[in-house]
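ok trying again, last paste got cut off:
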Amino acid sequence: MERSPPAVLDTFENPCGERDYVIRIRIPEFTCLCPKTGQPDFATLLLEYVPDRRCVELKALKLYVWSYRSVGAFHEAVTNRILDDLVQALMPRFARLTARFNVRGGLYTTVVAEHRAPGWQPGAPGTLAGGLPIVP
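nice, full thing came through this time. structure:
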């Protein structure tokens, strides 16, 4: 999978780094290309993360996502690559990327990839401290 042009995921200091909280970002206009046919693939991405020291800057995230418009990539590969890039930039306590791809050949694909920092656990199974659910 190649990317052109590479986009930078700018970050800023977490203003509330002393507590766990979830940031959810819905990205309804993700586009990449089918690596077999060159046809466009469309998806809605849902990024959920518990920041540690850094948060992603939204304009930078938008430009990063746009950089995939001319990239041929399988759904599984592109979802995991985006999560890997976000983890490298943010080093979050927890991150989940859900990619819901539109129909192609009568099939819908949803790919979910997660990252959990070593030693980090939510407050209770499936929730953060205070009862905030991790999943929508």
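cool. The longest strand covers residues 23-33. The CA atoms of residues 126 and 135 lie 8 Å apart.
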